[in-house]
Amino acid sequence: MTDINKNLNECFTLHNAKAECLEKLKKAKVRMSKQRLELLDLLFSGTFNCTKELYYEAQAKNPELGMSTVYRFLKVLYDIGVISNNKLLDVNCSNCNFKLASLKNNQGQELKADGLDLQELLRLGMVVKGLIKSDEKIDIKMLDDSVYISVHEDENKKQ
């Protein structure tokens, strides 16, 4: 199968899956708001690792979208059998790679922050404040609106 045919086949399969999902939602009498349609589009784009990433992508398109809306809709999808793995509802994702979207100084001026890794920025700030050693690494876990940071030795430095 050529790459073009493979891509067309994947698009067709994805389109069918989305259509089937919409049909299941219709049968379950779920009202499809603009926010839910946006979430469905993102779900079928598959560009996220966890609920938190899905939420951030959706909120970038619609700033009024709340985290509870994402959770409630995912629960609906789980209840009607569209989502078969409850792992998607887990926000403790160590694979999440958060980038700093914007950075402003105290005068409100936008500073260059393109692609800054938020986890590394937090780690460096903790080093500067003397909270951790420079050779220590951090893991970030998020649950609802809380951030949990665990500190551990850098595995590369042990050797």
From TrEMBL:
Transmembrane segments: none
Gene3D superfamilies: Winged helix-like DNA-binding domain superfamily/Winged helix DNA-binding domain (1.10.10.10)
Example of a GO MF term: DNA-binding transcription factor activity
Name of the protein this chain belongs to: Ferric uptake regulator family protein
Organism per entry: Ruminobacter amylophilus
